[in-house]
């Protein structure tokens, strides 16, 4: 009975002991988690920013915020060879312990007590990582804190993550930290490409970074490396052949410069992604290197003309990825502003926006490729643009006007399309400066009177290469793919591309046939006012390349032009990267269902009329393009001798003959007359016609006064003799005009003759009458400056 009682008592004591142990463990866990919550481990390591190319190779590296080369090694950088070598050397039981190795700690404590000094350590990789994260003095209290922090690391991070963090923080002397930094700066390659000998070298240096200095004490490093390789052999960590090769491998290690390619884009991406240690750009390392080399070589050639800066942007048309980004010819040239990013600098586009305008005109039905436009001197409400070569071509087709970059037809077209329509389209395409300037922009914007960037212009032309669909450019792998914006219909985009492919045009470089191979591309040039900016932007099915050449200072150069300065570089780039476009050429898009062809009169581009005898084929957009009968000639009744013409009111009962005469506008007729180009004129109207000459309210309009401008104010300098010009356009058959100033006859002249007068301050009425008795008045105000 007594024995049974004692047995029960012992059972109760054991249960109480177990309960006390569990309670103690629970209390310890509560304390640990409380401390973990109150004092969380900080892992905000300021890494160096790395910019990589699309294939993962490093393009550019930056110092960390604390001026360290501390590059972030990803898990893929930690190869099995590296993992085995570092764990064998530093922590063989890394995968098994909870952050500390109690057996190693007991062994180290015993040795230290027996010898009276520190002979061996017991720090695991986890504890060493804590020490690297939070450096402290080597005391027992510090050791206890490290132990606690090691448990925290094991609690919050996986073993792979702890090993990765350790390898990112180990010191290599100076301001180099982390195995990836050492691999790149001493061996010029990523950790994944290191040999066993090189990996072993990098595993031994962190223990003695001051004495084992690569590039200085290489002989000592080799000695220590081979000692560890021998230990690897003894432990059969690697096969015999691998060990033997590593022992015989010479050490070629020295301090290298960090990669510095694509500096402009790298700085841009770093500013836009401040918290990312690795930024994966879309650049192709091969294309980027090629572009940088060609731009620098070309800049050296044109420097003799006092032209110092160039910028290039290359875009993959299919993915919209930027594959090359060259902001200047030489980033290190501080004298010429080499650190300015020419891809994002706001400049004047010259004529480079014209393709978009013609595309909008195609979509509006205003023109087709063979529509005739007037390239003659024209006054647009006080704005009188001139062509680049200061010559005029008379009537030209729309495709000729675009391919030859004529200014007068472009301004006239913009007036018809409407400046707001062009501005709105450019805003949709993401032109930021134009969004700010929108209210102040006028007709001059199509000749360069606005601000654009090379990035915006290149993106616009990728839209032409993609059937009128413009998408944001992709600079990094993390850029979101957004929906494209439709600027032009597929039909209009194809017509523009078809026009820009023509090679019979003035913007080919001088002596081109003797100097270059012509790539198969569609391209457009631009030269800004004052010859400050030269543009050449081209595309084929694979790439769109934008080229800007000029001076960041804004200084103009007489030799600067889009054709002779920017286009040679554009052609070089295409010839090297994608000569003759082996991927094929643009065909009529399947989406261009409305694109068709029709017969037109070559004189006007309209549908053939009564007097059109030699029609040709032209593209049109069904249901959109204007359908007008050609009226380039008109029927006129004259007498047999062709000395007088008749209207329906005065035509005689007999003797009248029906003939056809050119039916051209007054400005075209004036152009022909001023250039002595013969044109058949309609005979003077029957002087006996009472309807025209016997009535004061004739139906026909009087002369159109083109200078001065009605309602305008003109400022003159009273100290200098100032002359103003009078000019007009008149109907067919008018031979003489009469100019009146404030109702007083000033001068009799031919319609095409320029008349000048010296104005006086005040309100001035200007009248112009023709020899048919018709007249027109305008009023202007003359003021002193």
Automatic annotation (TrEMBL):
InterPro entries reported for this sequence: Beta-lactam/transpept-like, Glyco_trans_51, Glycosyltr_51/Transpeptidase, Lysozyme-like_dom_sf, PBP_1c, PBP_C, PBP_transglycosylase, PCN-bd_Tpept
**Which keywords does UniProt give here?**
Carboxypeptidase, Glycosyltransferase, Hydrolase, Membrane, Multifunctional enzyme, Protease, Transferase, Transmembrane, Transmembrane helix
- Give GO terms for biological process: peptidoglycan biosynthetic process; phosphorus metabolic process; proteolysis
Q: What class of enzyme is it?
A: transferase
Which GO molecular-function terms appear in the entry? Answer: carboxypeptidase activity; penicillin binding; peptidoglycan glycosyltransferase activity
Query: What Enzyme Commission number(s) apply to this enzyme?
Result: 2.4.99.28
Catalysed reaction, written as an equation:
[GlcNAc-(1->4)-Mur2Ac(oyl-L-Ala-gamma-D-Glu-L-Lys-D-Ala-D-Ala)](n)-di-trans,octa-cis-undecaprenyl diphosphate + beta-D-GlcNAc-(1->4)-Mur2Ac(oyl-L-Ala-gamma-D-Glu-L-Lys-D-Ala-D-Ala)-di-trans,octa-cis-undecaprenyl diphosphate = [GlcNAc-(1->4)-Mur2Ac(oyl-L-Ala-gamma-D-Glu-L-Lys-D-Ala-D-Ala)](n+1)-di-trans,octa-cis-undecaprenyl diphosphate + di-trans,octa-cis-undecaprenyl diphosphate + H(+)
- The residues covered by the PLD phosphodiesterase domain are 304-335
Q: Where are the transmembrane segments?
A: 21-41
Presence of the UniProt keyword Hydrolase in the record:
yes
- Can you say what this protein is called? peptidoglycan glycosyltransferase
Taxonomic source organism: Spirosoma radiotolerans
């Amino acid at each position: 009975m007594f024995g049974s009682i004692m047995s029960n008592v012992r059972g109760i004591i054991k249960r109480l002991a177990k309960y006390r142990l569990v309670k103690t463990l629970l209390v310890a866990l509560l304390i640990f988690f409380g401390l973990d919550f109150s004092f969380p481990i900080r892992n905000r390591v300021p890494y160096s920013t790395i910019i990589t190319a699309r294939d993962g190779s490093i393009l550019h590296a930056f110092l960390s915020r604390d001026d360290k080369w501390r590059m972030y090694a990803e898990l893929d950088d930690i190869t099995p060879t590296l993992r085995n070598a570092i764990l064998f050397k530093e922590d063989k039981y890394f995968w098994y312990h909870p952050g500390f190795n109690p057996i190693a700690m007991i062994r180290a404590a015993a040795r230290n007590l027996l010898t009276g000094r520190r002979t061996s350590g017991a720090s695991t990789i986890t504890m060493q990582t804590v020490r690297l994260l939070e450096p402290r003095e080597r005391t027992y209290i510090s050791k206890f804190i490290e132990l606690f922090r090691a448990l925290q690391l094991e609690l919050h991070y996986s073993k792979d993550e702890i090993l990765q963090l350790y390898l990112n923080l180990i010191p290599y002397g100076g301001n180099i930290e982390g195995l990836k930094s050492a691999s790149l700066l001493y061996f010029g390659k990523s950790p994944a490409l290191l040999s066993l000998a090189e990996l072993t070298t990098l595993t031994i240096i962190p223990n003695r970074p001051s004495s084992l200095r690569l590039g200085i004490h290489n002989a000592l490093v080799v000695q220590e490396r081979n000692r560890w390789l021998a230990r690897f052999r003894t432990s059969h960590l690697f096969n015999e052949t691998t060990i033997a090769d590593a022992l015989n491998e010479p050490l070629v290690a020295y301090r290298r410069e960090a990669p510095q390619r694509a500096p402009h884009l790298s700085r841009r991406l770093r500013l836009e992604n401040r918290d990312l240690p690795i930024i994966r750009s879309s650049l192709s390392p091969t294309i980027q290197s090629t572009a940088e080399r060609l731009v620098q070589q070309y800049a050296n050639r044109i420097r003799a003309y006092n032209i110092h800066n160039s910028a290039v942007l290359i875009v993959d048309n299919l993915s919209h990825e930027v594959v090359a980004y060259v902001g200047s010819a030489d980033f290190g040239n501080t004298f010429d502003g080499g650190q300015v990013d020419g891809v994002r600098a706001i400049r004047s586009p010259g004529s480079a926006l014209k393709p978009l305008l013609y595309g909008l005109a195609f979509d509006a039905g205003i023109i087709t490729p063979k529509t005739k436009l007037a390239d003659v001197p024209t006054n647009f409400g006080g704005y009188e643009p001139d062509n680049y070569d200061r010559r005029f071509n008379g009537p030209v087709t729309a495709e000729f006007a675009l391919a030859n970059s004529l200014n007068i037809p472009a301004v006239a077209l913009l007036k018809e399309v409407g400046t707001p329509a062009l501005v709105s389209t450019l805003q949709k395409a993401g032109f930021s400066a134009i969004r700010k300037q929108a209210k102040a922009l006028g007709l001059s914007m199509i000749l360069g009177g606005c601000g654009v960037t090379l990035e915006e212009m290149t993106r616009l032309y990728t839209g032409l290469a993609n059937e009128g669909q413009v998408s944001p450019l992709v600079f990094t792998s993390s850029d979101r793919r957004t929906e494209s914006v439709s600027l032009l219909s597929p039909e209009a985009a194809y017509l523009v591309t078809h026009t820009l492919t023509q090679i019979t045009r003035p913007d080919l470089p001088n002596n081109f046939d003797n100097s270059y191979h012509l790539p198969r591309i569609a391209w457009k040039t631009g030269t800004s006012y004052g010859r400050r900016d030269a543009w050449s932007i081209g595309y084929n099915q694979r790439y769109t390349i934008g080229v800007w050449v000029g001076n960041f200072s804004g200084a103009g150069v007489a030799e600067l032009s889009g054709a002779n300065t920017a286009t040679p570089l554009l052609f070089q780039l295409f010839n090297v990267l994608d000569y003759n476009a082996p991927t094929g050429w643009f065909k009529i898009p399947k989406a261009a269902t409305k694109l068709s062809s029709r017969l037109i009169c070559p004189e006007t581009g309209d549908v053939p009329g009564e007097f059109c005898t030699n029609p040709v084929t032209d593209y049109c957009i069904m249901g959109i393009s204007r359908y007008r009968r050609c009226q380039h000639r008109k029927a006129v009744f004259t007498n047999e001798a062709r000395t007088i013409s008749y209207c329906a009111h005065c035509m005689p009962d007999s003797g009248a003959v029906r003939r056809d005469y050119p039916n051209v506008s007054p400005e075209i007729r004036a152009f022909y007359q001023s250039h002595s180009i013969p044109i058949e004129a309609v005979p003077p109207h029957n002087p006996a016609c009472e309807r025209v000459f016997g009535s004061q309210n004739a139906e026909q309009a009087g002369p159109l006064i083109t200078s001065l401008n009605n309602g305008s104010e003109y400022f003159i300098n009273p100290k200098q003799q100032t002359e103003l010009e009078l000019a007009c356009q008149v109907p067919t058959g008018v031979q003489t005009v009469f100019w009146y100033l404030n109702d007083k006859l000033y001068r009799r002249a031919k319609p095409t003759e320029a008349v000048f007068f010296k104005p006086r301050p005040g309100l001035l009425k200007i009248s112009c009458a023709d020899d048919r008795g018709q007249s027109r008045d305008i009023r202007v105000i003359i003021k002193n400056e």
